[in-house]
Amino acid sequence: MPKAVSQQVVNELGQSHCNPLSLYANTGLGKTHLLHAIGNALLKKTPNLRILYIHSERFYRDILKAINTNSQEADKLKKFYRSLDVLMIDDIQFLADKPKVQEEFLHLLNALFDQGKQVILTSNVYPKNIEGIDPLIKSRLSCGISSTIEPPELETRVAILRKKAEERGVELLEDVAYLIGQKLRTHVRELEGALNSVIAWQTVTHRPITIDMAREVLRDRFAAYEQLITIENIQRVVAEHYNIKLADIKSKSRTRTIARPRQIAMALAKELTNHSLPEIGREFGGRDHTTVMHACKTIAELRDTDTSIQEDYTLFNTQIIILEKNNDIGMVMLFTITREQLLKTLATVCGVLASRPTLPIINNILLEVEGDRLSLTGTDLEVELSTQAQLAQAVDFSGKFTIPAKKFLDISKSFA
Asked: What is the pTM assigned to this prediction?
């Protein structure tokens, strides 16, 4: 789908029915790569086109600088942007909560659209779901085409791994590639990171790359992924999203308001875990494996025809599920938050720990959850910094725990 709509834009540049083009996906799935491919195709077709690719952070700095300088510089920048034939802005979610820049962005969009100029944008979520963006901008973006880039299928992940290994002059056996591809399903960068680890280990030990060697080298990476993505976690997130009980997901009820979320949860379990179809069926009230197969097929078809199902499914794939067990009281603490929101907040707190290396004895982060807020606190005994993040959904409990800062940051970055 993303390739098809991108080709349509190349063939029908500036036409209202495909302007703007919004591509959304998580990190590492090829949004920027596709933007460059579109730009190259347009230049090949029409060499004299004025095309600009820019990241939203650079765009933000340009606009802010123009606002804070004299009117002559501001007019010069406006004239430059409005003279473009194609404007590509990457990661527009970083414009959230920046009202002055958003106001100028909206004026720019209106000017370009009125001239029949093409706008192509990317974001980490469906544009209408970006928090902190002016509703008028969201309305403008909804006039064109929105398409999501999904994580690659297993066969594609295997092909990517073997191609990357070939480019490095390394022989990667198909069974090893399948092992890595089955265990890591999020994005290409994670696959590349795993491959780099395996190749580095081979270089040091001079051992051939086998399944046993890959399991040994990637043990912690595999464990981190499997610990966070469980069938029960998926069931809880889906149930909370659709405002139904966890027991409903596992019940015999066939009402649409329960059956459809159940099918989505089954499809997610098939995609995101290593459990077999019979094992998944047992976790959903003892259902047969054929029921799981039917659910996966139904959801796959609905994602092609029903935008609401596709948006929900993409949302579930962009959430990070964090589970902390307290062995003493058997408590399970579960909450969901978008990767972007977590990383933004986490990076701020980690700065306290990283900036003062003379006191390394404190390297944990305190996480506190209450309602719809996640509080993170970092300290080095001299300086303490606390910040908050908005949860994807409110929780009906409160709790807190500590986690090693670097490990938490690494795990968070590894998810799409």
From this structure: 0.57
Of 258, 267, 283, nearest to 316 by C-alpha is 267
Do the strands 373-379 and 384-390 form a parallel or antiparallel pair, or are they unpaired? antiparallel
Query: What is the C-alpha R_g of the chain?
Result: 23
* DSSP tag of 160: H
Q: For the stretch 44-73, what's the b/e string if a residue is b when 16 or more beta carbons lie within 10 angstroms of its beta carbon?
A: eeeeeeebebebbeebbebbeebeeeeeee
Whether the Cβ atoms of residue 146 and residue 126 lie closer than 8 Å to each other: yes
Residue type, 378: G
Q: Which of 191, 178, 262 is nearest to 225 (CA)?
A: 191
Please give the Cα distance from 210 to 304 (Å, whole number): 38
Chain-centroid distance, C-alpha 290: 30
pLDDT tens-place values along the chain, 416 residues long:
777 888 888 888 877 688 889 998 877 778 888 999 999 999 999 999 999 999 998 999 888 888 787 777 788 888 999 999 999 999 999 898 889 899 999 999 999 999 999 999 999 888 888 888 999 999 888 888 888 887 777 888 899 999 999 999 999 999 999 999 888 876 788 888 899 999 998 888 888 999 999 998 888 888 776 666 788 888 888 888 888 998 999 998 889 899 999 999 999 988 877 778 888 999 999 999 999 999 999 998 998 888 888 878 877 765 544 443 333 333 445 566 776 777 777 776 665 555 444 333 345 677 777 777 778 776 554 555 667 777 766 665 566 666 666 666 666 665 55
Of 121, 102, 101, residue with least CA distance to 19: 121
Alpha carbon distance 126, 135 (integer Å): 14
